[in-house]
Design goal:
Elements lengths: L16 H16 L6 H14 L5 H16 L11 H19 L4
């Protein structure tokens, strides 16, 4: 069936299931937060725990760093160092992770 210009095949839009999942996640994080701390603080602390844990795998550290960067600055398109001040820091982190991987390949 062809639709006329401006006509949609789904006038009700996407179901609102994502809102339910978001609410469940927020409720869980709020239960985990200590008094006086927000769920954002708990979440960032846990992600930073992965970055700072010396036994974390490089791939997990990289994902954690990407997660934090994307939440703080947005997902980057092209990250030229002269435009994005965080790009230089990220490049250094990535280069260190690559050197560490080359020196200690995972089996």
């Amino acid at each position: 069936m062809k639709f006329k210009p401006g006509q949609t095949g789904n006038p009700g839009g996407r179901p609102k299931k994502a809102g339910e999942l978001r609410q469940i996640i927020l409720e869980y994080l709020e239960r985990e937060a200590e008094p006086g701390r927000t769920w954002n603080q708990v979440l960032v602390e846990r992600v930073l725990g992965i970055v700072l844990n010396k036994s974390s795998k490089n791939a997990d550290i990289l994902r954690a760093v990407e997660y934090l960067h994307d939440r703080a600055y947005g997902k980057p398109g092209i990250m030229p160092e002269d435009v994005d001040p965080a790009a230089k820091e990220i490049k250094i982190i990535l280069e260190k992770a690559q050197k560490k991987d080359a020196a200690n390949p995972e089996v």
